[in-house]
Amino acid sequence: LAKTTQPISMDSYEGQEVNITCSHNNIATNDYITWYQQFPSQGPRFIIQGYKTKVTNEVASLFIPADRKSSTLSLPRVSLSDTAVYYCLVASREDTGRRALTFGSGTRLQVQP
Amino acid sequence: GAVVSQHPSWVICKSGTSVKIECRSLDFQATTMFWYRQFPKQSLMLMATSNEGSKATYEQGVEKDKFLINHASLTLSTLTVTSAHPEDSSFYICSARDVQVTNEQYFGPGTRLTVT
Question: Which of A46, A49, A101 sits opposite B46 (nearest CB)?
Fold first, then answer.
């Protein structure tokens, strides 16, 4: 069964850069990688999406190596309000050949003052 | 921007009763909607994918007779939890895919279901 794994938790301080990596070794060929932020008792909020190399928007950057078996979300200069759980979402190809949408295990980011 | 709503935001029901949760795309048309379930401190697990006008596709281990999904229009999908039991208590989240922006899912705010 394809697994999409992330570190369980990370700690950081305000103003620092945070990098969160997601491993997705069975990613489907033509699908995008998407990252979401989730606060308690809320739905996930879109952060960034990419297919390969590097994507940057006003809140984050996403780095994807050539083999696309992992991706790294980079949050520049985090603030206290960035304390949340971060998930990657990929479409993986299972052993049966079926394409399955899979959320990563989630990384709980705690930002300290 | 694309907005997805869910109703109700929370519901408490007695064991054995059925509960319906609505998911609406407010400012776009969604040919595909997804239903997820999330237990405390866990990731989101996809339950089913529904396409407008056709039967939903359920993930392995999800009982289709227990979790009834109807996607009757391009802006509305419903999830009915039938004969609910305490173990069905969870956070249910829907998402919708814009027909014109097929790579992105827009998530609803979630519905907290508590079965007593």
Answer: A101
Written as one letter, the residue type at A68 is R
How much is the CA Rg of chain A, to the nearest whole Å? 14
| Beta carbons of A92 and A86 less than 8 angstroms apart | no
pLDDT for A60-85, tens place per residue? 999 999 999 999 999 999 999 999 99
* Contacts made by residues A48-53, CB under 8 angstroms, sequence distance 24+: A48/A73, A49/B103, A49/B104
Can you give the pLDDT at residue B98?
78
Q: Say yes or no for a CB contact (<8 Å) between B59 and A32.
A: no
- Angle (CA) B61-B33-B70 rounded to 5° is 75
Question: Residues in chain A, how many?
Answer: 113
Strand pairing category for B90-98 and B111-115: antiparallel
Place of tokens 């620092």: A16
Structure tokens at A18: 């945070």
